[in-house]
């Protein structure tokens, strides 16, 4: 069934709920692997670097953000791998999903930045429109 | 790290395109920073051309853009005003020499001691100063000036939503300059503030007396510029590292900056450094290699030689609008959140850096004050010992050394201990020197004289070692 499941993670509460759904979908098939994709938004590089004392500290902050999702997967004993991408979150997830020919994309309906969404529309909406596979948007 | 060939030709198509985008974005900034420094626009344009080209060979961070910058321009204002351009050129050469020496002495390691609170203050102060430098070019001049500044700002913030390939400032410049020329409105232009010569820069030795007196004049400026330039450069290289997920040679970059400034001074250019905004534009436009920086410099010079006549007709209000956008982009808007959430001392360091820079117009003074202040806060923090009590267990939080022991000893002098046996827990502490050991012995004896038995627990092994050693020595006497 869905062997390669892409789980988009930005560390938000919605991403954690998306992870719980990913576990359910993965449980249908023993060979399913959840691919946790975390996109480093390069628009935020300047601010991330400024607010940390070293590149190691920047890295730690990002790991912390991703850790809630990883915890869910660890607790459920799900098979997973993590992928770090750099760029604009929406387009990067779409490009990766289509290149890797993943079987399903699971993404939280809303990320961390509500203001941007009001102006631009949500990342999840863009991803859903452009990936060549089923997409599950988790509320 | 990649091979030199990869650094140059690993990304040819995207590097050429992004280089062109950056060249277009560099022109208004190079002109505006020249105006801030009080020199002809040509000085900033030559600077940007030469530094970009030289750094593409000599730098340690492929894909980073260096050129004439606001941070450097602001530092040189008094020198240009009091002594003229030739002294600036001499100071630029000296800046290069200092940076080269710093680079050879592995300055990147020292730069790690500049805390991030100071760096946040640095970019914020820079943004405020760039903005303030624009005021005289549009406040109280004419209604048309305000109108053009306003339209420019609207264009540069809305156009990127629809047109992604061409940089919005360029569209704003072309459209508004045409409108200004054809409608014949009365606006100040770049031409009013200097001339554009459509020739390549040439080699000449700055016309200053090469004496000790000259050195005394230019050295303080050169030193400030060397430090500020390297600070912004190393910050930018960290940002480019982060954006591209690669590493770079920080000391190599410092040496490269030195070489670039050294050469620039002999070609009529002013000292420059890496630019955060332009480097971000480059990486976002796909630029990754040395070729992108090289193309940015070459294409900028090409444009000036071909279009120099038109550049002087750019209305000042349009340039002002673009520079307001640059200052808004430079400012770290998460600072407001930082002021609330960061530790109190960090927030004070950040604010102090900003205030001193805005007051003195000198970024190097703000950085120095910020670093000193954070060092003082660090000393205070490290020399404070807190003690918490849980039943008969007294936990020490903090470092025990010569500067911190008073608080530790005083606590037990004043403490009203009822029980006959207590434990002192060192799991969150560490004994650094003889003074620390002495203080522990003093406390033990003090309590013993009151009839209280003391047990030291959770001492880490290195503290234990110091204790045992000194205890042995002391008890044998």
UniProtKB/TrEMBL annotation, chain A:
<dbReference type="InterPro" id="IPR006016">
    <property type="entry name" value="UspA"/>
</dbReference>
<feature type="domain" description="UspA">
    <location>
        <begin position="1"/>
        <end position="139"/>
    </location>
</feature>
<comment type="similarity">
    <text>Belongs to the universal stress protein A family.</text>
</comment>
<protein>
    <submittedName>
        <fullName>Universal stress protein</fullName>
    </submittedName>
</protein>
<dbReference type="Pfam" id="PF00582">
    <property type="entry name" value="Usp"/>
</dbReference>
<dbReference type="InterPro" id="IPR006015">
    <property type="entry name" value="Universal_stress_UspA"/>
</dbReference>
<dbReference type="InterPro" id="IPR014729">
    <property type="entry name" value="Rossmann-like_a/b/a_fold"/>
</dbReference>
Automatic annotation (TrEMBL), chain B:
<feature type="transmembrane region" description="Helical">
    <location>
        <begin position="12"/>
        <end position="37"/>
    </location>
</feature>
<feature type="transmembrane region" description="Helical">
    <location>
        <begin position="259"/>
        <end position="277"/>
    </location>
</feature>
<dbReference type="InterPro" id="IPR052706">
    <property type="entry name" value="Membrane-Transporter-like"/>
</dbReference>
<dbReference type="InterPro" id="IPR002645">
    <property type="entry name" value="STAS_dom"/>
</dbReference>
<feature type="transmembrane region" description="Helical">
    <location>
        <begin position="314"/>
        <end position="333"/>
    </location>
</feature>
<dbReference type="GO" id="GO:0016020">
    <property type="term" value="C:membrane"/>
</dbReference>
<feature type="transmembrane region" description="Helical">
    <location>
        <begin position="141"/>
        <end position="159"/>
    </location>
</feature>
<feature type="transmembrane region" description="Helical">
    <location>
        <begin position="289"/>
        <end position="308"/>
    </location>
</feature>
<feature type="transmembrane region" description="Helical">
    <location>
        <begin position="166"/>
        <end position="187"/>
    </location>
</feature>
<keyword id="KW-0812">Transmembrane</keyword>
<feature type="transmembrane region" description="Helical">
    <location>
        <begin position="117"/>
        <end position="135"/>
    </location>
</feature>
<protein>
    <submittedName>
        <fullName>Bicarbonate transporter BicA</fullName>
    </submittedName>
</protein>
<keyword id="KW-0472">Membrane</keyword>
<dbReference type="InterPro" id="IPR018045">
    <property type="entry name" value="S04_transporter_CS"/>
</dbReference>
<feature type="transmembrane region" description="Helical">
    <location>
        <begin position="345"/>
        <end position="361"/>
    </location>
</feature>
<keyword id="KW-1133">Transmembrane helix</keyword>
<dbReference type="GO" id="GO:0008271">
    <property type="term" value="F:secondary active sulfate transmembrane transporter activity"/>
</dbReference>
<dbReference type="Pfam" id="PF01740">
    <property type="entry name" value="STAS"/>
</dbReference>
<dbReference type="InterPro" id="IPR011547">
    <property type="entry name" value="SLC26A/SulP_dom"/>
</dbReference>
<feature type="transmembrane region" description="Helical">
    <location>
        <begin position="87"/>
        <end position="105"/>
    </location>
</feature>
<dbReference type="Pfam" id="PF00916">
    <property type="entry name" value="Sulfate_transp"/>
</dbReference>
<dbReference type="InterPro" id="IPR036513">
    <property type="entry name" value="STAS_dom_sf"/>
</dbReference>
């Amino acid at each position: 069934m869905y062997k390669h499941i892409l789980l988009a993670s930005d560390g938000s509460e919605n991403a954690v709920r998306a992870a719980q759904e990913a576990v359910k979908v993965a449980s249908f098939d023993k060979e399913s692997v959840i691919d946790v994709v975390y996109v480093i938004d390069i628009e935020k590089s300047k601010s991330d670097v400024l607010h940390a004392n070293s590149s190691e500290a920047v890295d730690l902050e990002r790991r912390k953000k991703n850790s809630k999702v990883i915890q869910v997967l660890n607790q459920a004993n799900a098979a997973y791998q993590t992928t770090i991408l750099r760029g604009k979150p929406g387009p990067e997830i779409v490009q990766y999903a289509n290149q890797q020919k993943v079987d399903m994309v699971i993404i939280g309906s809303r990320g961390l930045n509500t203001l941007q969404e009001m102006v631009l529309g949500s990342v999840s909406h863009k991803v859903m429109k452009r990936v060549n596979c089923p997409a599950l948007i988790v509320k | 790290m990649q091979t030199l060939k990869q650094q140059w030709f690993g990304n040819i198509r995207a590097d050429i395109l992004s280089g062109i985008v950056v060249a277009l974005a560099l022109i208004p900034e190079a002109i505006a920073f020249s105006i801030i420094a009080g020199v002809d626009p040509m000085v900033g344009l030559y600077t940007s051309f030469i530094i970009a080209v030289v750094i593409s060979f000599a730098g340690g961070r492929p894909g980073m853009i260096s050129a004439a910058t606001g941070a450097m321009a602001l530092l040189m204002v008094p020198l240009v005003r009091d002594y003229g351009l030739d002294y600036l050129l001499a100071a630029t050469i000296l800046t290069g020499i200092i940076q080269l020496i710093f680079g050879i002495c592995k300055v990147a390691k020292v730069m790690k001691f500049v805390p991030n609170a100071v760096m946040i203050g640095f970019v914020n102060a820079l943004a405020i100063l760039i903005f303030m430098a624009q005021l005289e070019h549009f406040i109280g001049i004419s209604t048309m000036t305000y109108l053009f500044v306003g339209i420019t700002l609207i264009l540069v913030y809305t156009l990127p939503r629809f047109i992604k390939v061409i940089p919005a400032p360029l569209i704003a410049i072309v459209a508004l300059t045409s409108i200004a020329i054809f409608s014949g409105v009365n606006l100040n232009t770049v031409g009013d503030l200097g001339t554009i010569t459509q020739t390549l820069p040439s080699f000449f030795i700055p016309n200053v007396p090469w004496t000790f007196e000259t050195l005394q004049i230019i050295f303080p400026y050169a030193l400030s510029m060397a430090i500020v330039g390297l600070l912004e450069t190393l910050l930018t290289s960290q940002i480019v590292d982060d954006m591209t997920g690669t590493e770079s040679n920080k000391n190599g970059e410092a040496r490269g900056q030195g070489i670039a400034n050294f050469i620039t001074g002999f070609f009529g250019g002013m000292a420059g450094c890496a630019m955060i905004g332009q480097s971000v534009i480059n990486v976002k436009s796909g630029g990754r290699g040395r070729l992108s920086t090289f193309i940015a410099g070459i294409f900028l010079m090409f444009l000036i030689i071909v279009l120099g006549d038109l550049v002087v007709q750019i209305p000042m209000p349009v340039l002002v609008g673009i520079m307001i956008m640059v200052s808004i982009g430079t400012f770290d808007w998460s600072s407001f959140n930082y002021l609330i959430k960061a530790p109190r001392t960090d927030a004070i360091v950040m604010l102090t850096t900003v205030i001193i820079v805005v007051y003195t117009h000198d970024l190097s003074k703000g950085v120095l004050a910020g670093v000193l202040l954070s060092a003082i806060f660090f000393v205070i923090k490290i020399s404070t010992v807190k003690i918490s009590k849980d039943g008969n267990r007294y936990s020490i939080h903090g470092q025990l050394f010569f500067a911190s022991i008073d608080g530790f000893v005083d606590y037990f002098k004043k403490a009203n201990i009822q029980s006959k046996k207590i434990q002192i827990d060192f799991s969150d502490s560490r004994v650094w020197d003889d003074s620390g050991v002495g203080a522990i012995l003093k406390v033990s004896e003090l309590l013993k004289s009151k009839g209280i038995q003391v047990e030291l627990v959770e001492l880490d092994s290195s503290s234990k070692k110091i204790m045992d050693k000194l205890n042995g020595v002391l008890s044998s006497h």
